[in-house]
């Protein structure tokens, strides 16, 4: 009976507190980096995933450091809070068309989005912030059809 109770507890803990499992490579990558790396091991972790270590942007004020990495078709930035905890993972990838498939996977997992209008360098664009009731982390997606790149982020972001 104790074993059955322990198994049930572990199963429920995994359902309620574990990371969501996706079968999309990019969704799995941002969550893997977010949940399984630390500020101390990030360079080795990303090198092991096939990325080249880039520059570190030192944080100012309330923002922590941001570590950049790149591969042949992907750029990743891992953002940290001032206390060294992971704040978010941002991925810029080739192939804006992939964004539609990523958004379908996020929607199928029960997330809903709020669309935000932004302007960067005089260019207007809309990004979607995907959240799920009761979860503190969210996804952000955006596709730039002109430059043919997609944007995917996972972490704790303000709405």
Decide which structural class fits the backbone.
Answer: alpha+beta
- Calculate the mean pLDDT score and round it: 85
Radius of gyration: 17 Å
Strand content: 35-45%
Tally the helices.
4
Major sheet: order of its strands? 1-2-3-4-8-7-6-5
Unreliable spans: 2-19
Our count of domains comes out at 1
Number of strands: 8
Helix content: 25-40%
Cα(first) to Cα(last) distance is: 45 Å
Element string (H = helix, E = strand):
HHHEEEEHEEEE
Largest sheet: 8 strands, antiparallel
Summarize the structure.
By secondary structure, the protein is α+β, with helices and mostly antiparallel strands. The chain has one domain.
What labels describe this entry?
159 residues, 37% strand, globular, alpha+beta, 29% helix, 4 helices, disordered N terminus
Structure notes:
A hairpin with a 2-residue loop joins β5 (112-120) and β6. It is built from 4 helices and 8 strands, in the order αααββββαββββ. Helix content is 29%, strand content 37%. The protein is α+β, with helices and mostly antiparallel strands and 159 residues long. Mean pLDDT is 85; it is low at 2-19. It has an 8-stranded antiparallel beta sheet with strand order 1-2-3-4-8-7-6-5, with helices on one face. The relative contact order is 0.15. The chain has helices spanning 2-17, 25-36, 42-48, 98-108, and strands spanning 52-57, 66-70, 74-80, 86-94, 112-120, 123-131, 138-144, 149-155. It has one domain (23-155).
